Amino acid sequence: MLFDTFFIRDLKLKNRLVRSATYEKRADERGFVTDALIEFYETLAWGGVGLIITGNAIVHPSGFSVERAVCIYDDAYVPGLRRLAHAIHRFDGKVVMQITHGGRQCYPDMLGGNPPIAPSAVYEPILNVTPHAMTEDEIWEVIGAFGSAAKRVQASGFDGVQIHAAHGYLISEFLSSHTNRREDDWGGDEERRFSFLQEVIKAIRANVDADYPVMIKMNSSDFLKDGGLTPQESLSIARKLQGLGIDAIEVSGGMFESDVRLRAARGDILKPEDEAYFKETAAMFKKELDIPVILVGGIRSRAVCEELLVSGCADLISLSRPLIREPDLPEKLRDGKEKADCISCNGCMRFKKLDMVRCIQIED
Q: pLDDT tens digit string along 179-227?
């Protein structure tokens, strides 16, 4: 099944392997596409993955969470992004752009020294910062920014757009009872916490063609000791997303302050039993939903990929760290390789120390 074709809406994928959105640190200091970024994605497309989801593109200047990330909050970015989409298509690749806002998980030094914005002023212990609770005007400004960003994604020639609603970034913060403690129309109960994402989806749909694929990445759980999104709440959100016309859901989990052993990028994946650590929630989604479910989370072996598909845990298999080390891993798996070389050391996640995101186990 892994190398069967698959459709998301009318988007035909040559196999069921997805490159999960992965920060590249290859844009220039202002967020423009560089030749290095294009070369990076050409290599991925050549490597045979069925769908590429780009590293998170910033929809608003208040949303910077990492250096040299791609930006999409101005029309000036479109020509470079068009070059990027064209380069991927030249290698018969399909590409979706992930759009995001970092919320409270933004470093103040990337925001001109200003505090980050968030639904509520809840202290973020990893960055040691307390965000500014968003005003009504700020909320609507960012919602509009997501809609405008999606319009630019389509204008740039990408095959679809993915909303980043996972990992403790802004949309994830609105969904979570831990980070959203508002008592107005944007928080207070599960229904109102969903309002921000609902308006984002409406804004995106109003800015792209009716048949343009709109996907989402969301948490299975926040994995916090006290409070936060649970698997049952995430399933309730997923049902609402299907009702709003979302075309595919990628299942992940955790945020900056989650237990390190339970975050999205876990270490010590030593045997098949350690792989696919969000599969239980993905299987819940598959049972309840009629739209494609994409599963990410420590998947390393071809046999595990096949079992996840056959058993009905997922429709598509998403990889991040293995494709940092081996961008041609899909072709290798097709040719009979059984397991990725990635050892889950997480050296590639040391964003601040690396010149660009890369596997530190490979000699320059």
A: 999 999 999 999 999 999 999 999 999 999 999 999 999 999 999 988 8
Task: Name the amino acid, one letter, at 155.
Answer: A
Q: Give the HSE-up count for residue 299: Cα atoms under 13 Å, Cβ half-sphere.
A: 32
CA atoms lying within 13 Å on the CB side of residue 280: 8
* pLDDT number for residue 14: 97
CA–CA gap between residue 264 and residue 296 (Å, rounded): 8
Catalytic residues: 169
Round to whole Å and give the CA distance between 360 and 115: 32
pTM over 0.85: yes
Burial class (CB in 10 A: 0-12, 13-18, 19+), 310: exposed
In one-letter notation, the amino acid at residue 175 is: L
Strands 132-133 and 6-8: unpaired
Note whether 165 and 176 are within 8 A (CB): no
**Using N-to-C axis directions, what is the helix angle for 195-205 and 231-243, rounded to 10°?**
30
C-alpha 7/C-alpha 2 separation (Å) is 13
Q: In Å, how far are 50, 118, 285, 341 from 4, measured between CA atoms? A: 10, 41, 21, 23
Burial class for 262, CB neighbours closer than 10 Å (0-12, 13-18, 19+): middle
Rounded Cα–Cα distance for residues 190 and 228 (Å): 11
